[in-house]
Automatic annotation (TrEMBL):
GO terms for biological process: fatty acid beta-oxidation. This is 2,4-dienoyl-CoA reductase [(3E)-enoyl-CoA-producing], mitochondrial. Its EC number is 1.3.1.124. It comes from Parambassis ranga. Auxiliary enzyme of beta-oxidation. It participates in the metabolism of unsaturated fatty enoyl-CoA esters having double bonds in both even- and odd-numbered positions in mitochondria. Catalyzes the NADP-dependent reduction of 2,4-dienoyl-CoA to yield trans-3-enoyl-CoA. InterPro entries: NAD(P)-bd_dom_sf, SDR_fam.
Length: 356
């Protein structure tokens, strides 16, 4: 739901089928502008091939890329290390906490909802045999962040691994955004990440202790995206923050890296970004790997980046999206739906074209 000063309605919330048909027609229109070179008299032949397909892939290729969800690193890779994960109670944060705990880390998870955190901490501790601490924290509030770090220091000492994962997002036309809607996202994503990073960074510097910082952003932090403008702007700011500090704070023993995930299905994110479920098929259709990501997959990547196996990695921005970004960026990538027989017909039509 949009956080706005006036009611803001999206077409897909009311008529998913009509929205799908509209999007397909729009995509088909874009395709046909690209094949006008074959001539108006011949375009009807091709039109029948691609009508309704919008150039999307079937997803059947996902069988070549099955997810492996067990812990990738050797057991004990995080023995005697403390990991601090914001947004650690649910979704991607929970998955990363689980993997780090399996690998030996003593984890501290933080978010606003203490009851959710405590339940997650108990479940992961029971599963892995390693203690997980739950600390309430509203990352939007610098004072709350300072108190959270105080509590963590008393429990575990300062962390060796910091993962800024807390986020907020919703889909909304930009003309419907209010100042409160803008702040609701940017305060969590950009300000929250900055407050946590600076509070911990300053204390670590004072104690002369090195650490690995990791931020979870998104592929559209790089490209921008309509309908999620507060999130796109804030995530781009986080990318700039971490790249800047990678250059400045390496001298203190601090590494900073970024993961830009594509669509990874979690209940919390998809309930706000795809509430009707109508867009999931379109998402899969533009991912060359042919499927959505799994939380355990990003957890393995986060564990590697944060581990001693990756101490030469700093300032890196890792796109983790099954190829979605490059597929959307390529001008003619939608032609993947053309069959070999259709290519032969198109080639003959192109060869017969006269003039420039």
């Amino acid at each position: 739901m949009c956080v706005s000063s006036a009611p803001v309605f999206s077409l897909f919330l009311f008529d998913p089928l009509k929205t799908h048909q509209t999007l397909s027609k729009m995509a088909a229109g874009l395709f046909w502008r690209k094949v006008e070179f074959v001539g108006a008299g011949k375009s009807s032949v091709l039109r029948s091939w691609f009508h309704g397909s919008a150039g999307l892939q079937s997803g059947s290729q996902s069988g070549f890329f099955p997810p492996v969800e067990g812990a990738m690193l050797p057991k004990g890779s995080f023995d005697n290390k403390v990991a601090f994960i914001t947004g650690g109670g649910t979704g991607l944060g929970r998955a990363m906490t689980t993997t780090l705990s399996q690998l030996g880390a003593q984890c501290v998870i933080a978010s606003r909802k203490l009851d959710v955190l405590q339940q997650t901490a108990e479940e992961i501790s029971s599963q892995t045999g390693n203690k997980v601490h739950a600390v309430q924290c509203d990352v939007k509030d610098p004072q709350a962040v300072s108190q959270c770090v105080d509590q963590m220091e008393s429990l575990t000492g300062l962390p060796d691994v910091i993962i800024n994962n807390a986020a907020g997002n919703f889909v909304c036309p930009s003309e419907g955004l209010s100042p409160n809607a803008w702040r609701a996202i940017t305060d969590i994503v950009l300000n929250g990440t900055a407050f946590v990073t600076l509070e911990l960074g300053k204390r670590l510097i004072q104690k002369q202790k090195g650490a690995s910082f990791l931020a979870i952003t998104t592929i559209y932090a790089e490209s921008g995206s309509g309908f999620v403008v507060p999130s796109a702007s804030a995530k781009a700011g986080v990318d700039a923050l971490y790249k800047s500090l990678a250059a400045e704070w390496g001298r203190y023993g601090h590494r900073f890296n970024i993961i830009q995930p594509g669509p990874i299905k979690t209940k919390g994110a998809f309930s706000r970004l795809d509430p009707t479920g109508v867009f999931e098929k379109e998402m899969i259709g533009r991912i060359p790997v042919g499927r959505l990501g799994r939380p355990a997959e990003i957890a393995n990547l986060a564990a590697y980046i944060s581990s001693d196996f990756a101490t030469w990695m700093s300032g890196a921005v890792i796109r983790f999206d099954g190829g979605e970004y490059v597929w959307m960026a390529g001008e003619f990538n939608h032609l993947c739906c053309v069959t070999p027989e259709q290519w032969k017909t198109m080639e003959a039509m192109i060869r017969s074209t006269k003039g420039s």
